[in-house]
Write a structure and sequence with these properties.
Elements: E1 2-6, E2 9-13, E3 20-21, H1 29-49, H2 71-85, H3 89-94, E4 96-101, H4 110-117, H5 126-135, E5 139-140, E6 146-148, H6 150-153, E7 164-167, E8 169-170, E9 172-175, E10 184-188, E11 192-195, E12 205-211, E13 214-219, E14 223-224, E15 230-236, E16 239-246
Helix pairs in contact: 2-5
Length: 249
């Protein structure tokens, strides 16, 4: 396992070597220098493994996090991230609005949250899902609410959200076959890619289309669908609350 640092926080995930994911804007000097060294090493490795002849122009979706522009929200989110890391059920439940939306099938409220997520269960998927969302930044809307992750909040309308996904890092390897030992044929840099046959980003390997005649395989942990889980926060009754936490469309 390696520590994965998103632009809004930290969560743990097993990663393929030399893939750099989004880094926070506020790093310590030591961490910043180390991150720079690691990124440079990854870049040099990719330069030698990926021929410039196969490099293609990529449509990018760069990470963005506006949380720091509203200090009280930034503090609220940081406290929530700590609660998620500790699996503090009470703290997370206290952040939910009374009518929090949890699906597009009518699941709303705290009771539905417990029924769907079973947060006290040892194998609850809540903690990984919520940590990933909070770590990937987000943006404020004109109504003052904040939506995360950036992959959903800033997704371009011209890209079909059901057939495309976003690479959430730099130097993400595209391989000729679904194996870490397969040849590297391309490297993604926050690119928007088309999946073959609508595969989900939570698959171990996702086949993507590089051109009309060529496909490749990417470790699914480095890709995120814009219709994967996302969260919206709004200030209600004088405090920030989770208004929805949903996936799908």
């Amino acid at each position: 396992m390696r520590r994965v640092t998103g632009i809004g926080g930290i969560y743990l995930k097993a990663l393929e070597p030399q893939a750099a994911v989004a880094l926070p804007r506020r790093l310590s000097l030591h961490a910043g220098l180390q991150a720079g060294v690691n990124s440079l090493r990854g870049l040099l490795i990719v330069v030698f493994l990926v021929s410039p002849a196969v490099s293609r122009a990529q449509t990018r979706l760069l990470p963005v996090d506006q949380a720091a522009s509203v200090p009280d929200f930034f503090s609220f989110r940081a406290q929530l991230q700590v609660a998620v890391a500790r699996r503090d059920v009470q703290a997370v439940v206290s952040a939910l609005s009374r009518d929090v939306k949890l699906s597009f099938g009518g699941d709303e409220g705290v009771d539905a949250f417990h029924r769907l997520w079973k947060p006290s269960a040892p194998d609850s998927r809540l903690w990984e899902a919520l940590a990933a969302v909070l770590a990937l930044g987000g943006t404020f809307s004109t109504d003052g609410s904040f939506t995360a992750p950036y992959v959903f909040a800033t997704w371009p309308r011209e890209k079909d959200a059901f057939t495309h996904m976003a690479a959430i890092g730099t130097n993400i390897r595209v391989r000729s076959a679904p194996s870490t030992s397969a040849e590297v044929i391309e490297a993604l840099d926050y690119a928007i890619v088309e999946s073959v046959d609508g595969q989900a980003g939570d698959a171990q390997w996702v086949q993507i289309r590089l051109s009309p005649k060529q496909t490749g395989f990417v470790d699914g942990r480095f890709l995120r669908s814009p219709i994967d889980y996302r969260v919206n926060f709004a200030r209600r009754d004088g405090r920030w609350q989770i208004v929805f936490f949903v996936a799908g469309d």
